[in-house]
Amino acid sequence: LGHRVALITLNDPRHLNAMALPLAAAFNRVLDQLLADPSPYGCVVVTGAGRAFSAGGDLTWLRDRALDSPSRNSVIMRNFYNLFLRVRTLPLPVIAAVNGAAIGAGLCFAMACDIRAVAADARLGFTFVGLGLHPGMGATHMVASIAGYETAYRLLLTGELVDGSQARELRLVTAVEKDGAAAVGRAIEMAKRIAAQAPVAVRACVRSLRQKQDAGLEQALWREADAQSYGYSTRDCLEGIEAVEGKRRPIFTQYEQYDLAPKVKSAL
To answer: Of 14, 108, 162, 199, whose Cβ has the fewest other Cβ atoms within 10 Å?
Structure first.
């Protein structure tokens, strides 16, 4: 792009840039190049190709998790988070230009970036509970850190979808533009302004802010990975996946009984 700004595009528009392993591999190849020599750049912008930023997880891959063991799934999920959260290892500030829908893990990835500009008509949501799953990829940590606990409870427990203007009201994003192209333009504008500042000072400031924000993140990621790993084995998770595939509302039936203390008959 010039002006010491790098633009990364999640480029699988046919699948709405779903967070599948091939997309993760391509994204990490770009990260490897930037990490090998970030000196030409002062800021990074990430966006999605086509009409979505990222539609979230790959349903086929999620089904495969239901066939695996909880102990393996916990490690698999934690490693999967890293494929995208590794963006936080860049020594440069990262701006997410949310040009369209950002759902589930796709929105978690946007929240892992340092700044977010979003299209007004973009649909954003942490829809994990509607799939019968605990939120993952740092959602429980990053949403509370950025927007506060009440917003985190509301969005993570309801799976509610919000538009760009609502996302700004909830403090999830910093800028709202009329459409996806304008959101990318705004992100690039901010990136150019950042890249024009003193490089040493900018990178040091990024380190300071992330160190504060990341306190407790590793613990949260393992908690999420463990919770998701046993969620995959539930009937409700399979129902949630099938409902999305069938474009219908899920019917959850797996209610839990917590009165598990053994009943002891009195000898008197």
So the answer is: 14
CA dist., res. 148 & res. 164, Å (int): 18
Tokens of 191: 């990136």
**What span, in angstroms and rounded, lies between the C-alpha atoms of 105 and 18?**
9
DSSP 172: S
Backbone phi and psi for residue 50, each to the nearest 5 degrees, phi listed first: 80, -145
Nearest to 113 by CA among 130, 132, 90, 136: 90
CB 255 within 8 A of CB 132: no
Identify the bridge partners of residue 47 per DSSP, sorted by sequence position. 9
* pLDDT, mean of residues 179-192: 98
Q: Give burial (CB, 10 Å; 0-12/13-18/19+) of 49.
A: middle
End-to-end CA distance of the chain: 83
Q: How far apart are CA 28 and CA 89, in angstroms?
A: 12
Spatial distance between the Cα atoms of 23 and 12, rounded to a whole number of angstroms: 7
- Does the predicted TM-score (pTM) go above 0.90? yes
- Angle value at C-alpha 167, between 162 and 172, nearest 5 degrees: 130
Cα distance between residue 68 and residue 76, in whole Å: 10
Q: Cα–Cα distance between 64 and 232 in angstroms, integer?
A: 9
Q: Judge whether 171 and 143 are in contact, CB under 8 Å.
A: no
Residue 202 CA to residue 196 CA, distance in Å, equals: 10
CB half-sphere exposure, 128, CA atoms < 13 A? 26
